[in-house]
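# step 3/5: fold
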Amino acid sequence: MLVPALLSLVTLQQPTAPAASPPIAKVEVQPSGGEVPIGGKLQFTARALDSVGAEVPRAAIEWFVGGDVGDVDSLGVFTGGYQGFARVTAVGFLRGVPNSQVFGVALVRVLPEPPARIVLDPRPARLVAGSHLTLSVTEYSRHGDRRSEPVTFTSSNPRVATVGNDGRLNALSAGRTTITATSGPAKETLALHVLSNNVARITIEPGTVAVRTGDVVKFTATPRAAAGRALGDVGVEWAVSAGPGVALIDPSGTFVAELPGSYTVTAAAGGKEADAVVRVAPRDVGRAIEVRGRVPIAMSTAEFWLHPSGTCGYLSTIADRVYAIDVSDVTHPKIVDSMMTNARIVNDVMTTEDGKYGVFSREGASDRKNGIVVFDASNPCHPKPVSAYTETVSGGVHSSYVYKGHAYITDDATGSMRVIDIQDPQHPKEVARWQTEQTEAGRYLHDIMVVDGLAYLAYWNDGLVILDVGNGMKGGSPTNPQFVSQYKYDLTATYARVWQLFGQGFVRGTHTAWRQGRYVFVGDEVYAAHPYKGLQDGNNLTSRTRTRSLGTSPPTAASITCGSSATRSTSATIKAAPACWIFPAS
């Protein structure tokens, strides 16, 4: 996706030079920009011009996309795939003339789709007269992209309840009404029953609580009549007074604080209120790290996988090899063997659970036979390749994950997941394929992890996708993956600071999904639209981690970090230092 890689490709395509031509001073792209809907097309043309504006004879043009929301073909036809901005780039060059490349750029906006559905929160079925609460609205397109179009609210019976276009709902008198939210073609309704107000007081539980930052507290509030009788399931409005701190409480009464301090949580219904106090202490999770060993490596590295025996591990490279490293003495790790392969990038490496076999990925092979290599790891420190699978993934495999006799791999060419049966390591075979279906243009699957029969896919523009590949909740299996859920978020809005500083058309996507206990940690990869100075790796403008709650507790494990990539980090473009460090478990 990056311009340097594209530049290298253009350079490789240059044969012997013909008669001399004037140097290219400028590449003119027409139109200079435009807008297309998702699935729409826009034709571009380009001319290579010399210093006086004359067209350079024999100049060649190649087309590329800077950004990741669409594709451009060899004729300059751009196809929109996902909402956002793309930099359609024409590279003019003279065949056989080194360093003759000149770039011309047009900025294209892929328009968002209109709202197709609306989600209201909260959705109270009953309120008591005199209650007030605010209905929050989230709009989604038909492909799950968040929208922010104006929303109008109406009440079918304003004598019972009124609602403004800001979503503020006021329950006035006993009766029934229907609240309707409308945005473009999307519409959502809420049937509401307003009860007579006989609330005498509200009880809230817990009344006082002491937690740490990040802890989640679930509050419950019960409106009661004068005799103390609970009024049942009626809507309550929640609020939090944060003072100098930062905290939030959602419409269900779920509280979390980001900063330490004392917070007051308030529940209100029918003109009555109840308070609870939350005292939040710092989480204090810092701990020291001790560097135990280091292996100097002469090239950039991608990932380290420790063999189940614990004696040796495998270090992949942004190059043509996988190193076997003896870590039996963590203070003196050493390279003891290697596996060479035809590739420019060996990004992922992993063994089977029993350590008998392993798989590593390949990209950039000179013969275009990329895919995966299966290796014998029965001798952990001296692995040997035994077979390869290239048939349906010759365009390259960026990431792979081995789970119960199958390799779940990414297909660079189509943006799909392929499932390869490696139970017969000498004869790997594809048994399933799965992909998102918004569009092929811009579709890219970056990383995969499989835990408890669930595959967690870091699907770039499509966010986090979870599939059943043997868990059973949706009847899935390795040969029949089934969709479970998707968590899609607005990447352009998330990294608005990047385009504010460096322009639209920047590269951003869901890079890694890592399941740990009850959570999936989702990391993004972000690049500015053009070279820049002043920001370094890890700055708060271009990195963010999200978590999704799932439902078990995390274990503790040792970690090995190679360069700047942690265990099972899978970026092929990582700027890694030429070394590995071993950290002990806590």
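# step 4/5: annotate
Residues 1-13, 542-586 have pLDDT under 50 and may be disordered.
# step 5/5: archive (pending)
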